Amino acid sequence: TAAGGGGAAAASSTTTTDVTSSASKKSIYTIRTPSSLITLATCNLNQWALDFDGNVQRILTSCRIAKDQHASYRLGPELEICGYGCEDHFLEQDTFDHCWESLIQLLEEGASDGLLCDFGMPVLHAGVRYNCRVICYNRKVLLIRPKTAMADNGNYREGRYFTAYSVPSNGASEEKHLLPTNFASRFGQRDVPFGLHHITCADGTTIGCESCEELWTPQASHIDLALRGVEIIGNGSGSHHELRKLSTRMELMINATRKCGGVYLYSNQRGCDGSRTYYDGCAMIVVNGRIVAQAPQFDVHDVHVITATVDLDDVRSYRASQPSFGIQAARLATDEGGGDSNSLLCDDIHLVFDPLDMSLSGKSRPKVADEDLTLQIAAPEEECCLGPACWLWDFLRRSGAAGFFLPLSGGADSSSVAAIVAVMCILVTKAARDDPEGNVAQDCRRVCRQDENSLWVPANPQEMGNHVLHTTFMGTDNSSEVTKSRAKRLGDAIGSYHLSIKIDLMVSAVLQVFQLATGHMPRFLSRGGTMSEDLALQNIQARLRMVTAYLMAQLLPWVRGRSGFLLVLGSANVDEGLRGYMTKYDCSSADLNPIGAISKGDLKRMLLFLSKKYPDFDVLAEIANAPPTAELRPIDAATATAEAGHSQTDEDDMGMTYEELGYFGRLRKISRCGPVSMFRKLLVTWNHLSPSEVASKVKRFFYYYSLNRHKMTTITPAYHAEAYSPDDNRFDLRQFLYNTRWTRQFAVIDDMVAEHPETDKDKND
Fold it and tell me: I want to staple 283 with a disulfide (CB 3.0 to 4.6 A). Which of 213, 258, 295, 300 is the partner?
């Protein structure tokens, strides 16, 4: 009998062959080692929180595709049955009950027939809520494996809903979970093992689970599984997109199998499941540190399955070639008395296939990968447009809206939002035209208010843009012809339904009401008024644009003879939110903001990238290179530039550059710096400035940050893209009433500057 991998005895057969020679007739015994080839599948699924029926159909589709590719194991994303983003709905018993109903439906509809399925769902066990993997085969639940480490940083709040599982203190390994009563009547099963087990099949194949956050922990689960001989590890994840994050995630999986050997499958949700985050897919299969299959990071399709055929002997050979691995594996076995109490033997499950089996000939099965795939990672400027574009598509098709309305000023921010919608139209149009009967085409017809029984698809992205995007330049006497022209040209390039209007009548009417009530008429600072008057006059223009935007969003479909409503898009970037450089309840107030967590620098790089990739969008390069301006004060012809078209610029108003804001934002959030520690770090980073200049910049930032923090409590829901987002609702939890003088903190900074007067003098000189 030949020994299989992972310490488990693999099935084998012994045959006798008679060989006749001139001398004598001898019996020769040969051993035929069982096959070690297996086809595995993992997937990206665009699940939607609490959409139990839709989620089931997407899971069933992934299982059907896996079977069509002749996979014997299928891995799905974390909490795929209910959707990852249920949040406080995880506190409701209904959510758990509906998950069991969905699991029963999956089994009854044959999802696990001949396919080992690793599903993700919440389970209430012994009165405790757990985030679990549920392993099923041939309509039987083999194992419920609970998650051992909760994700509780940033946007994650798993500890609010679930408990991290730990092995019972009495060392018991035979913990059982009582299944719902209808399981017994339908499938003849009453209970199932519950705990940190792995599956050992009759053919020697071993499969274990690692769940999302466990990969990121210092004592990752895959290390223990590998030392126990587990060859295949599935990680069902719910990992959201963040700029420049994917490479870190990939490196963890590649390094895990490079160090320990093994086959690592990664499954992730992809899409917006109802909140600010976008799950960016990128399902992968990694073998011994080599990527052999990778799914796209961004896409508008609901289901994407990847498969790979793997030779498990490669894993066994790889591990056996590392003496240090063998020493640690043997030590673990010795410490536990020579057995593996965590292994569940399933002696009726065979996952490998025999390549000599004639019944399998002609079947389309992936070949064994013998070369590494090139890692597919989008550049940050691509991420900035692709992620929000897919996020907007999910919101649009699932909200029932007929499109978007965007106040288009011709500046970088609103133009970035328009460009993102244009990219959405490009992605959807291509998918719809590739498959006019597919789900994307059906959603496109419904959103564009076309006959859903037809095969209509947009002829080009501009045609779709005209259906779904409505833009309006809302000018005043303070607006320039330069920005008006840019807005018009961009609208034409995208194909949006574009209007150019002036709102001076509205501004004048509000000011006349104020004058009738108070007997006073405010003036701009340049015309003899005070700063309070000047700010009030700027703010009323901005707020009336928000009022006009919602009026347009409600009535433009009616004007065009169409049904439905429009979602209003905001266009404040992350740096402006951090500094508070926006009017509360102006055009930053909207239904959605696809750039609310993207920096000005990244947005400009995105505009330049798109202007090169799509020649029709060449106006984006002009917009990217123009100085940002709010155009809320009267134009001073003496100081206005041709590029800006105006004398008022954002950076002059803020008293700091967008690049400096990026430094402040990263240090405040990512590096967790208060005023004093930020000052210390910037003394080194900005060593071309004197200590007093650095101190002045830091104090100015914290003053305006704390003064305007209240604006973050009403900020429009924004696509989460940047790790230093100031979103107060979910991500950046801090007070909004501050002592804006920061008396203790600023005093310490002043003392530090005073300790080195000669350094300060030299730099100023």
Answer: 295
Model pLDDT for residues 252-307, shown as the tens digit of each residue: 999 989 999 999 999 999 999 988 899 999 999 999 999 999 999 999 999 999 99
Query: For 721, how many CA atoms within 13 A lie in the half-sphere containing its CB?
Result: 28
Q: What angle do CA 267, 270, 273 make, to 5 degrees?
A: 120
Alpha carbon distance 435, 440 (integer Å): 8
E strands of 7-101, at which residues? 13-20, 25-32, 37-45, 73-75
Nearest Cα to 70, choosing from 41, 111, 43, 33?
A: 41
Between the alpha carbon of residue 638 and those of residues 345, 543, 641, 642, 643, the distances in Å are: 83, 28, 9, 11, 14
pLDDT of residue 120: 98
Angle separating helix axes 691-707 and 658-665, nearest 10 degrees: 80
Long-range pairs of 608-613 with CB within 8 A, sequence gap ≥ 24: 608/381, 609/379, 609/381, 609/382, 609/385, 610/385, 610/419, 610/422, 610/423
Computed over every residue of the chain, the mean pLDDT equals 89
Structure tokens that stand for 701 in this block: 């930032």
What is the tens place of the pLDDT at every residue in 583-593? 888 888 999 99
Active site residues: 78, 147, 212, 409
Helices (H) and strands (E) in the chain, counts: 24, 22
Q: Which amino acid is residue 146, in one-letter code?
A: P
Whether residue 228 has pLDDT greater than 60: yes
Cβ atoms of 747 and 695 closer than 8 Å:
no
Look at residues 259, 210, 209, 199 and name the one whose alpha carbon lies nearest to residue 8. 199
**Closest Cα partner for 336 from 203, 171, 465?**
171
- Give the Cα separation of 295 and 675 in Å (integer): 43
Instruction: Give kind and range of the element (H or E) at residue 412.
Output: helix 412-434
Contact 495, 462 (CB under 8 A): yes
Whole-number Å distance between alpha carbons of 367 and 322: 27
Interval 665-694: pLDDT, tens: 889 988 999 999 999 999 999 999 999 999
- As given in the structure block, the two tokens for residue 675 are 């005023």
Q: Evaluate whether 265 touches 74 at the Cβ level (below 8 Å).
A: no
Rounded Cα gap, residues 390 and 299, in angstroms: 7
Residue 743's Cβ-side half-sphere holds a number of Cα atoms within 13 Å equal to 1
Asked whether the beta carbons of 445 and 306 are under 8 A apart, the reply is no
pLDDT band at 9 (very low <50, low <70, confident <90, very high): very low
Contact 295, 283 (CB under 8 A): yes
Residue 170 near residue 146 (C-beta atoms within 8 A): no
CA dihedral angle for residue 227, residue 233, residue 235, residue 241, rounded to 10 degrees? 90
